[in-house]
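User: Could you check the structure of this?
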Amino acid sequence: MSTAALPAERSQASHRMLITVSVMLATIMQALDTTIANVALPHMQGAMSATQDQISWVLTSYIVAAAICMPLTGFLSARFGRQRVFIWSVVGFTLASMLCGAAQSLEQIVLFRFLQGVFGASLVPLSQAVMLDTYPPSQRGSAMALWGVGVMVGPILGPTLGGWLTEYYSWRWVFYINLPFGLLAWFGLVAYVRETPLDHSRKFDFLGFAFLSIAIGALQMMLDRGESMNWFDSREVVIEAMLAGLCFYLFVVHIFTHSHPYLEPALFRDRNFSTGLLFIFVVGIILLATMALLPPFMQGLMGYPIIDIGYLLAPRGVGTMLAMLVVGRVLGKIDERLLIAGGLLLTALSLWEMTHFTTQNGGWDFVRTGVIQGLGLGMIFVPLSSITFATLQPRFRNEGTALFSLLRNLGSSIGISVVITLLSQNIQANHAALADYINPFSLALRMGVQSGALNPDTQEGLAALNAEVTRQAATLAYLQDFRIMMWIALLALPLVLLLRVPSRQGRVEAAPAVVD
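Assistant: Sure, the predicted structure tokens are below.
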């Protein structure tokens, strides 16, 4: 390299770093909001004088809006320009966050959370698309590592930050915290991210959008409300399931028969991309389902305060971040498939250890297993993000990143619904099985009575005995959920064989030079 070229190279590297910081701020802001509000719900419920079912709409409205609007990212970016859509998404998300913090009624906060979901839907896929186009193929591993830190660590650290803000300040600060992120992200996007060429010829496929939106919205509603409404015993849940299935079928038929479909079928001809979607769906299940189980296990069965739970779960995010940064540097020197397989095995190992938890476990057990699982997820996410888009044509990148994020979110929603449902069912089944041992011939019961610890001859004694049986049944149910997720991680291993590692020449370069 000539001496004259060095300043230009440094300037280009500096420009890329500024773009990275800008899109990372937007990514972290959106990723945090997927979980940060969860721990503040009881405080919001009291402030708004709402029932448990009513306050759950604060989460439901955000999830449904984001899921419906995420697939719009590709069309909006092509028609109006990626930078313009990105900037307006950041501005809208930040303003909606401020309105959520200032809300004075349940109706207001549900509406503003819906707007948050609408504007936030594009932030993660657009940030990934910008990163992929900013860095050459040789540096995309490091780029995906930096981007992945926000996507993966944000939801993990969200409950910790949300619990701390709610405990020491107010639940409103769970939303106000987005203001500095939003302002800095806006400034960086305006100053450093260039606009992409516009495609005015692209037509909006309203029918395809309607089919997909109804399918996703109905599925999310079914997953979110199914447990509280006893699933298919509820007419509402049955209607939502039928609507989701019918509209998804119509959408698939439509995109294969329409001349200008909402999503081009050519997207799915890329083998790595299609396999990557299946993989990220599995990662989504494990990422948030574990976080949905551990806090109630630690608080309800072990008596940990919510703030301590946040501190004990935070190292999981640290493990994820460390793995991503290390893997980002070795990517290209080690086969991506080996890294993904190693990450799945580490994740399965941590879940196997969690199947041996008891209510006597110390904090170090949660930290150790959390770090191992974080390392495993970090090892999966970076090479998976890189290899999924390695051979995908740049013209499909906006739609591809939107689908990648959508499948991760759907995996998380389905994973949480499944483990919570199984938890409830297994508690009942375990309670019935353990209750069979409560009889005059039970050695353990006789020893408990003789020692004075149990007295089944009084109402208080029976209540205490039933409480202990329920506690043990719940403990077993949590361990059964951890075992199911361990098998999910192991059963995903064969998917590695479907991935192909392209040669350096086979990797798709960044998009052509963009215009100001």
